[in-house]
Design goal:
CATH topology of one domain: Glutaredoxin
CATH class of one domain: Alpha Beta
Order of helices and strands: EEEEEEEEHHHHHHHHHEEEHEHEHEEH
Radius of gyration: 24 Å
Helix content: 40-55%
Largest sheet: 7 strands, mixed
CATH superfamily of one domain: Glutaredoxin
Distance between the termini: 38 Å
Number of helices: 13
Strand order of the largest sheet: 10-9-13-12-11-14-15
Structural class: alpha+beta
Oligomer: single chain
Number of strands: 15
Strand content: 15-25%
Amino acid sequence: MRNLVFITLALFLFASCGSTDQKESKISGQVLNFDNDFALLMSKGITDTIWLENDGSFSHTLTHSEPSYYRFRAGRISNLLYLSPGGDIELAVDISNPGNNPFKNGSLIKQNNTLYEVNQTVNSVASDFRGLYTLAKDEFMSTIDSLSILTNTIIESLEYADKAFPSLEKSRINYLFAGWKYNYPEYNARLSGEEFTANENDYKFIDDMNFSNLKHFSISEYTSLIESHINRLYYAEIGKDEHKGKSVFEQTLMRFDMIDDLVSNQKMQDFFKYNSTSESVKWSSLEIAKNVAEHFIANAHTDEYRQLIEKALAKRMLLAPGQPAPDFTLTGIDGKEYSLEDFRGQLVYLDFWASWCGPCRREIPHLKKLKEVYKGKPIAIISISIDDDKYAWEKMVKDEELGGYQLHAEKAWLSDAAQQYQVYGVPTFVLIDGEGKIIEYPATRPSDPETPLTIDKHLKRL
């Protein structure tokens, strides 16, 4: 599920991690069977936009000083790739055949073919998530040992002109397996239907890990492992009695202090704080989002992350209470076109959802109840589907007898409606007043007892 915001940045340089010997690397190729005009290139929390020609072809250069991993994303298709300074790689990404090896040519073809083969080998086991994490612990560890031997054999089977790659790739895989081990106790308990109680001995194996290794900063498996460790320590700490009653902002500052204690490098500190701040801006109330973002902006040492949060907060403020709600024109299941303007003079309760979304399904009975309670009153409850599969949406609307205003957003997450309403996950609800201005974003769900109280209050003001 694409839950990334489309970011157009005037960033050309990916921050270097050591040497100042900057060299250009090139990524080129073609994205086939794709109906959008851009792809994304991501590393270390920075997202760069790659514009595609009419035939899907592209050529993109970047300057860096260290061998690094990047993620090339076109729609839902995501491919990990490796670049060393001065190297190049050519891709052919076919959206209709996402499992194909995308690497076709370039000076780094050996490294990236190896990377692809290693990932395919690991994914053959990891794709069965339940099967993996319900293994007995000795079987689980044996599976990791076998995969470690197999992936090392693949990495060592070729000679590479780039001598940094074998060591870096082995480190990446080691971090991946360390992440599996770290998550195993909790996942195993929950999937087995047991209550999870943390045992500190299960996590001792990472005590000696370097949490500030800049040479490994581009390895997402490395930063994900650190993030998991931070999360576990943080939630254990704020659950203590002495922290009860602390505000979300105060709790966030505690998290930032924990990051500083664990990670010594300032750029990496800012990266993990940026991740937390970004989540607050997306999901928290406006007050909390502003407080956390402004604190981060005032204290961050890394310009790239500070600028990203400034942009994210400015975007969030576009949906602040009192701001004009973005207009839309979408086709309903009845074949008619509807726009927000059509409902002027009424409250509007927008429901962004998808047929495949479990939490969305759980809200359906509550949404139906709201429709009954407010039948004949000046409020329009409008459901906007972001389903890629239009047939699945139509089927659910009919099978569940959803009724009312049922609209479909073409291009799903990339639709204008989803982008303008900053839909990062579903369900997302928005309450709009009779003048077309935002009352609440995100609004409470239909299942929340506060929802009818808020609606009633604003109906009285019409």
